[in-house]
Amino acid sequence: MAVNVKGLDAALAYIEKKETAMIEAVKDVLANTATNVEKQAITSAPTQWEGFPLNIKQKIDKKSSNNGLLWQVGVDVPTSGEQWEAWMEFGTGLSAREILSNPNYSEEVRRLARTYYRNGKGRIVGQPYLMPAFYRNSANLVNDMVDEINKVLK
Known about the structure:
Layout: H1 8-44, E1 48-49, E2 52-53, E3 60-65, E4 70-75, H2 84-90, H3 93-100, H4 107-114, H5 130-138, H6 141-153
């Protein structure tokens, strides 16, 4: 005895179409968020420190991977020597301690900041530019993705 379900192929095609549309909607939200983080970080990045010119703005960029489902926005900081990009983000000395005590900073960010730690006596006052842009633009990220998924499902 065989069972024949009418409309099964159409139902499966509909589900696949909606699944693809939902993934694309999420990718769009992630791409827009990354672009907004990048733009705001560039706008906020300091251009000098005590008259010394900095070219941090030109080094900020975003990269996509996992077919648009993973985005990274940041600055490539040298592993040694002058690390102005990190020093200006996190500060040095007392400024770093103050900035990193902010409850918004995760342990992951604190761990990253510690990699640029020297002796704790620095006098560079941080001017965070990347993390504030991230927090501002990712605060509603999950809700934005849910909204876009719901639009697809209507």
